[in-house]
Amino acid sequence: MPAYIEIAEDIRHRITSGELAGGDRLPTERELCERWDVSPITVRKALESLRADGLIYGVRGKGTFVRKPQQLVRSAPKRYWRPHTKATFLNEAKEAGRAVTVQADVHRTYAPGEVADRLGIERGTDVQRITYLIRMDEQPVSSSVCWEPLALTGGTEIEDPTRGPLANTGIVPRFDSIGVHVDAVREALHVRMPTADEADTLDIPPGVPVIAIDQAFRAGDIVVQVADIVFAADRYRLEYDMEIK
How far apart (Å, rounded) are the C-alpha atoms in residues 167 and 164? Predict the structure, then answer.
């Protein structure tokens, strides 16, 4: 048996037997080399095999960890119902017992053609562009980019959704605070293979698709936000609970 397979099978057994639990850190590459008396190339090949099977993931600068087996649950449309005081992903993380970190970037820009069309505004109109990378237990789970018309939010306390008293409360309470009543959301889901950048950003093993969501929130006839969301299909379970009329 090739050495890399033997190493991978040993770690796989320790994971499936429960000796290594979700979130546990694996020995370093150097420690595995010393333990098995093999080269770094052999160890990397073993770890890549386990990563391809979805059993482990890496965190830059911190090491390699066992992936938690349970998926996060994304329930719609309840995730947007009033009342709520937290962003929807915070509730999902809490229910799954995960710790959340959010990397966000906010800046003013001009609406490009497609975005302007989705928002129903003139091309080149001022918008706020917000990008998010969400990690749970340090594992990246989703990335997104959102646009909001500054004609609605400019000069208000919600202009920057990452700052102020309403930061991380979610789109519904944010816009309620300025008298804009969000009453509808449309989501179009697409299952596809990730781009190279998406696979790198979200640490997606080979062969795992992503679910891409085109999202739009409305308040009556006004579109208040559009977003493009991407997450690895093996990390979320989608649930829909809807009335039939």
Answer: 6
Q: Is the peptide bond before 40 cis (omega within 30 degrees of 0)?
A: no
∠ CA 90-96-101, rounded to 5° = 40
Residues 6+ apart with CB under 8 A from 159: 128, 150, 153
In a domain, 115, yes or no: yes
Provide the phi-psi class of 137: left if phi over 0, else alpha when psi is between -120 and 50, else beta: left
d(C-alpha 201, C-alpha 131), whole Å: 13
**Residue 245 and residue 243: Cα distance in Å, rounded?**
6
The model's pLDDT over 107-141, given as tens digits with 9 standing for 90+, comes to 999 999 999 999 999 999 999 999 999 998 888 89
For strands 236-240 and 72-76, give the pairing.
parallel
The predicted model scores a pTM of: 0.79
Residue 145: closest CA among 209, 227, 232 = 227
- The answer to the question of residue 164 being in a domain is yes
Instruction: Supply the pLDDT for residue 76.
Output: 80
Tally of domains in the chain = 2
The backbone torsions φ and ψ at residue 111, rounded to the nearest 5 degrees and listed phi first, read -70, 115
Give the CATH number, domain containing residue 37: 1.10.10.10
